[in-house]
Amino acid sequence: MSNIPVTLSEIRRARRRIAGIAYRTPLYFSPRLSDLMGAQVYLKLESYQPIRVFKIRGAANKILSLSVDEQRRGFVAASSGNHGLAVSCVAERIGTAATIVVPTTAVEEKVRAIEEYGAKVEKYGRFHDERMSRAIEIQRTTGAVFIHPFDDPDIIAGQGTIGLEIIEDLPDVSTIIVPIGGGGLISGISIAIKGLRPSAKMIGVEPERASSMYQSIKTGKSVRLTDTTSIADGLATREPGTYTLEITKQNVNDILLVSEAQIERAVFTCMKECHLVVEPSAAAVIAALTDVYRPNVGEKIVLVLSGGNISLKALANILSKFS
Q: What pTM was estimated for this model as a whole?
């Protein structure tokens, strides 16, 4: 795998590094989804992390790989919410300050959770690249260390620890379906999976409204979208990363697109059929399975449920539509 900046060995080192902060999450067999799809469906429950989202893995690996002097400078991050929550959590654990730039439309529950870890929150702009510009400006002014949400080898390696766990729990997995925002999650998992079980298929999922990775792969060059507003705010990245685009090109077999209505229904389906509350960004993989993907009989499929940080208002609205 040429031009990929992360190795399987680095992912294994990341697992040892983050062991005291990130959980080893369950791989849950779903009888109901398996019956519905005629396949063996497993759920990788990243919503069971201490901050209810996978982002703790990458943030912990990045921050703990820094020197003590770098850690003392504090951190700044741009986030729709979950990455900021992860950076704030790790910063508190090591006794360092953090500033998180979130969109003006950020979910208030996520903002409050970030603040509970002692971080400063600044609301700025609507889109990821706007937040990034502001975060980099703060970094230049304060000297804090900028923690990228996805396009960083240490972040990718941290997320890749999920792939190690999947293979350990289900060595003969056939297909892994992963949501795509900036691409750090699927990049890390795919490196681990392709290194340990090359025959397994890697399938990505994006909202139709935020399909920057899909369009970049299709056109053969990085595509920047003008508007990626989606209920799946964690997937609403206007342009993929340089690293993550290259890794996705090499390792991911297909990218599926799902509509806003399909994502909403998938949140309800997950609660009804699996008794699990997940955020829309995580539910996108359930939407892909039930509405787009066509599994083979008996296929062993892992859905990576990336997080459970859904606002009560959004959950109530979805339940009112389908229950």
A: 0.96
**Burial of 99 (C-beta count, 10 Å sphere; 0-12/13-18/19+):** buried
Give the HSE-up count for residue 29: Cα atoms under 13 Å, Cβ half-sphere. 9
Burial profile 102-132: b = 16 or more Cβ within 10 angstroms, e = fewer: bbeebbeebbebbeebebebeebbebbebbb
Is residue 91 within 8 A of residue 69, CB to CB? The reply is no
State residue 1's pLDDT score: 44
CA dist., res. 194 & res. 8, Å (int): 9
Are 8-53+152-322 and 55-146 in the same CATH fold? yes
What are the pLDDT digits (tens) for 97-115? 999 999 998 888 889 999 9
Domain ranges of the chain: 8-53+152-322, 55-146
Residues for the chain: how many in total?
323
Q: Does domain 8-53+152-322 have CATH number 2.30.130.10?
A: no
Q: With bands split at pLDDT 50, 70 and 90, how would you rate the model's confidence at 128? A: confident
Beta strands in the chain (DSSP E): 27-29, 40-45, 75-78, 98-102, 120-123, 145-146, 175-179, 201-207, 254-258, 300-305
Instruction: Give 298-310 pLDDT, tens digit per residue.
Output: 999 999 999 999 9
Strand partners, 27: 44
Of residues 244, 243, 246, 256, the one with CA closest to residue 293? 256
CA 230, distance to chain mean position in Å, is 15
What are all long-range contacts of 171-174, with beta carbons under 8 Å and residues at least 24 apart? 171/197, 172/197, 172/300, 173/42, 173/197, 173/200, 173/300, 173/301, 173/302, 174/200, 174/201, 174/296, 174/299, 174/300, 174/301
Question: What CATH topology corresponds to 55-146?
Answer: Rossmann fold (3.40.50)
CA nearest to 309, candidates 159, 87, 114: 114
Share of the chain above pLDDT 90, in %: 93
The single-letter code of the amino acid at 203 is: I
Angle at 55 between CA 197 and CA 173, to 5 degrees: 20
